[in-house]
Amino acid sequence: MPTGRAAVLEDYGEDLKLWEVQVDDPGPGEVLVRMAYSGVCHTDEHVVTGDLPLPVPMVLGHEGAGVVEAIGPGVTRLRPGDRVVLSWLPACGRCQACRSGWTGMCRTTSRAAEKGTLWDGAVRVHAHGRPLSVMSLTGTLATYAVVPEQGAVAVDADVPLAQAALLGCSATTGYGAVAHAARLRPGASVTVIGVGGVGLHVVQASRLMGAERIFAVDRFPARLEAARRLGATDLVRVGEGEGDALVRILDATGGMGTDYAFEVVGTPATIAQAFNAVRPGGTAVVVGVAPPHEEVSLNAFAFPSQGKTLTGTWYGGGDLAEDVAALLGAQRAGRIHLEAFLGEPFPLERVNDAFAALRAGSATRPMVALGGEP
Ligand SMILES: [Zn+2]
Ligand SMILES: [Zn+2]
């Protein structure tokens, strides 16, 4: 039973605290992962604020990569020493959603995630003699994580684990929004509202899939500049003294709007803005995670008269192993630039500085180094 350290949210609105934790050996079908890197995501921040109320105290973090240290009974796909990306949405394969092919809506996983446990209520992390909940079956802001075998995807030995960590949430979500939810066609025009940690991946994936014109909308100049480097053709700054973003996009497209719009903020206003930014017959995709009680107001007449589609995506809606392979193939071919998302990593002791960087609109993904890169 290894002893490790974990970044724990003791109560909503507080800074994270570093706790010494005891981690059980992996149970049947589980693997113990020595964590190398964990990103800090807006969904973590939603837990900190209480907008996404999960049971505390909880080990936060759900975007991570590391090295398998031990495997539980019955594990067949992974071996100690494998470098893995962790999934916060593993498919049990047995629930009604999984059996209907909706593995991204796995009920076993969503029930466990609400309780902060693994499948079937198992808890593998303890502190002060008590079980400790972990975020989204992962809890990556820790030196160790125990996850279901289905929640770890092996990558080649030469893949840098900080890049691999991005594939655990932001890169895959952004890519899947474009490739699966929108099924973006080459030559398309695109609006991306919010070019932070996920939105920049939407920009990059849109370019990868052949979009010709990409409007990036954000209030932070550094993020807009990053969007430009990753393929955005039109930068639309919002905020005080700036014009209305929607008006500017409509003006620039002959009053039509773009073929696709991606909302990557998670507010009712920006969701409506994305819907209004697409041309008749176009598709708007909600990627941003709004607090669960929020509602959106849209013009009802626009649905029949303009034939627009409004849809959403949760973790990209694809098969994680396939999407990881596609993204790493594109990275190898120089067609995407995961390295552009990475700044200097924060040591675990400075995890709260990583959250501060997220809140300040960092143009790179705040990444916490956990020591497990061999
Ligand atoms: Zn995330
Ligand atoms: Zn399932």
Structural summary, described in words:
The protein is of the alpha/beta class and 374 residues long. The chain folds into two domains: 3-168 and 342-369, Medium-chain alcohol dehydrogenases, catalytic domain (Quinone Oxidoreductase, Chain A, domain 1), CATH 3.90.180; 174-313, 3-Layer(aba) Sandwich (Rossmann fold). The chain is built from twelve helices and 19 strands. The chain has helices at 42-49, 96-99, 107-115, 161-166, 170-182, 199-208, 221-229, 245-252, 268-277, 302-306, 320-332, 351-359, and strands at residues 3-9, 17-23, 30-39, 58-59, 63-71, 83-86, 125-127, 130-131, 133-134, 144-148, 152-155, 189-193, 213-218, 234-237, 258-263, 278-286, 309-312, 346-347, 367-369. The strands form three sheets. Strands 3, 5, 6, 10, 11, 18 and 19 form a seven-stranded mixed sheet that branches. Strands 8-7-2-1-4-9 form a six-stranded mixed sheet, with no helix packed on it. A hairpin with a 2-residue loop joins strand 7 and strand 8. Helix 5 crosses helix 6 and helix 5 (170-182) packs across helix 11. The longest helix has 13 residues, at 170-182. The model has no long low-confidence stretch (mean pLDDT 96). It binds zinc ion (2 copies).
Notable traits:
single chain; 374 residues; alpha/beta; Quinone Oxidoreductase, Chain A, domain 1; Rossmann fold; 7-stranded mixed sheet; 6-stranded mixed sheet; 12 helices; 19 strands; 28% helix; 25% strand; globular; binds zinc ion
Strand content bin? 25-35%
The CATH topology of the largest domain, please? Quinone Oxidoreductase, Chain A, domain 1
Q: Number of DSSP strands?
A: 19
Oligomer: single chain
Q: What is the total number of structural domains?
A: 2
The CATH architecture of the largest domain would be Alpha-Beta Complex
CATH class of the largest domain: Alpha Beta
Number of helices: 12
Q: How would you classify the helix and strand content by structural class?
A: alpha/beta
The main pleated sheet reads as: 7 strands, mixed
Classify the helix fraction into a percent range: 25-40%
* N→C terminal distance: 20 Å
List ligands, each type once.
zinc ion
Provide the CATH superfamily of the largest domain. Medium-chain alcohol dehydrogenases, catalytic domain
Would you tell me the overall average pLDDT?
96
